[in-house]
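Our consortium's second objective concerns turning raw sequence data into structural hypotheses that experimental partners can test. To show how far this objective has progressed, the report includes one record in full. It was chosen at random from the queue rather than selected for favorable results. The single chain below, 167 residues long, was entered without modification.
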Amino acid sequence: MKDKLKNPNIYYIVVPALAGIWALLAGFVFYPGSVKAWQEDAKPVYTESQEWMLKLIELQPERLQFLNKQGKDGEFDFGQSIDVLTQLFQIPTSKYTSSVRKPVSRGGKKSRTATMAMKELDIETTGRFLSAMLAISPDLKCDIVSIDKAKTGKDNWNVDITLTYIY
């Protein structure tokens, strides 16, 4: 077997032939199959979701912009949002700490940063919490997520999150 691998014909003839066969298969079999699967399965779901989004925009256009009742941009309340979401996802107060920094002005815009440290949470709850937090406002961005394995169990993680709100 080792003698066959030392034969240069394998590298000059067999490998390029296999690459050519792969390219032909990709061009004439795999790509048309993926296009057909898109047309049959994914495209109807995509067009239906587009229709629902357009209806939502027609019925509630104010969802596109986060404005206070006073008619001006407002500060995002990190504390209230964190409290509501931790209760929703049943994260006890003993398992997280949060701190919110004062607003900082940069380039004519203000930004506010919050950090949150969560201890011994399963990864699903952490992901759902972070996803819900980012869905609250389109101007809220997640800058840093640090995940470390906790020593207490199989699916226990220590998570540090840094969020920034620019308004």
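The partners drew two points from this record. Confidence is low (pLDDT under 50) at residues 66-72. The CA atoms of residues 101 and 155 lie 31 Å apart. Both points have been shared with the crystallography group to help prioritize constructs.
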